Amino acid sequence: MNVTEAVTSRRSVREFLDKPVDLETIRRVMDTARWAASGCNYQPWEATIVTGQPLKDLQAKITTTPPQEAEYDWTAPGQEDAYKGRLNAVSKGMFGSMGIARDDGEGRMKAMARNATSFDAPAVLFCYFPRLMKEAQWSDTGMWLQTVALLLREEGLDSCFQEFMALYANVIRDFLGLDHDRYMLFCGMAIGYRDPDAPLNNFEREREPLDDTVKFVGF
Ligand SMILES: Cc1cc2nc3c(=O)[nH]c(=O)nc-3n(C[C@H](O)[C@H](O)[C@H](O)COP(=O)(O)O)c2cc1C
């Protein structure tokens, strides 16, 4: 698989096959991802990847705990119509693929709640970093996460990033033995093998036209 194939075949997968992810494969991915760039080479990212019974135990805690206030805000762009439109488009594709109508609030809530068990993925990566990290290091961490996602594709694996997990930061930090004062829980990442036939993994996604977002000068 070349890089273009990894980029274009990656999509957020929300239905997984009942097939475990082995340690050797995931270690290989994480080992290579260390070569992601970061400003000043700080390498701010940290993660724990959980599978098997420990994952079930953590999910039992997540599903029985009310969500907390998220420690960071991922909703701000929704104030502007252009961004709101992009969110609406992905919601339409996602819920539409499951046959959930626009006005079916309960159905939507139920579908969203599947985030709590990471869509039954066999493994979940929890990503965190010390709270002293600022915008630049959040961005570095995103680059590292994307590197992980692309390397997973090379191994035939799929993923879905999950900022949803920020609503359970306290539960997750407790479980992982992380100091609440020191660590920001950034996101989860469901990892496993995609169910190729699931409509939820096949709805059409939208992207803005290149020339609306990137300018080329001096060519
Ligand atoms: C940092 C980050 C957090 C995300 N959190 C969630 C999440 O909590 N739940 C979810 O279903 N998708 C989540 N997504 C997936 C996005 O909805 C998805 O990337 C976007 O709609 C584009 O679709 P694609 O990944 O299939 O290309 C997240 C993506 C990123 C990058």
UniProtKB/TrEMBL annotation:
Key words, A-Z: Flavoprotein, FMN, Oxidoreductase
PANTHER family: NAD(P)H NITROREDUCTASE YDGI-RELATED (PTHR43673), NITROREDUCTASE (PTHR43673:SF2)
GO molecular function: oxidoreductase activity
Nitroreductase domain span: 8-193
Keyword Flavoprotein: yes
Signal peptide from the UniProt entry: none
The protein's required cofactors: FMN
Annotated family: Belongs to the nitroreductase family.
Name under which the protein is recorded: Nitroreductase
